[in-house]
Known about the structure:
Blueprint: E1 2-6, H1 10-21, E2 25-30, H2 33-39, E3 46-49, H3 55-61, E4 68-71, H4 76-89, E5 94-99, E6 116-119, H5 124-132, E7 141-142, E8 149-154, E9 175-182, E10 185-187, E11 200-205, H6 210-217
Parallel strand pairs: 1-2, 1-4, 2-3, 4-5, 5-6
Antiparallel strand pairs: 7-8, 8-11, 9-10, 9-11
Amino acid sequence: MKVLVAGAGRLGAQIAQVLAAAHNDVTLVDLNEDRIAELEGHLPVRLVAGDACEARLLEHAGAHTTDLVIAATGDDEDNLVISLLAKRRFAVARVAARVNDEENTWLFDHRWGVDVAVPATGPLISLIEEATGATDTVALLRLSKAGVNVIETAITSQSHVAGRPLADVQLPAGTIIATVIRAGQPTVPTDQTQLMPGDEILLVSHTATEEEIHAAFQ
């Protein structure tokens, strides 16, 4: 699937990371050139700096051949404009938009080109499931046709691995850590990466269950 994500903040970057890990062709757009520069080399996606509220930028980012547009900026007005352009100007088949202020939820419908309105406060797994239209996810996010699961877990101050390096974590067989997201920025971890409260971990596995991952980290 070809996906265009508008908004490279914490949520947008996480969505792009997961969808790219599931072998989708992902383009991530953000108005902030410094933010795009920060993500260079950290995400396996195409990064584009510019205003996604402008049709010319969306065209440059490949909206005319995109299967899914996710408007994930922190501004509801921008998300509505992006959605409308994606649907009306580029006839994108599926458009999902982040709702930052729940009082604006009533605006996010077909009149503005929105197929799916997703609350910014929802869990990452649920947000991606709703945006992509995936229906085979119960506890895990199954996006790869090869049967690979992307599993999310968060480190808290109560996690027994907090303050310890990844080398100390006993992962289930067939499981690797895809990324550690810290302060909104995904990084490729090493064995010496020290886990801290607030870290979010995305793991890829073809055998482990969510309960096994929880036991390893929590």
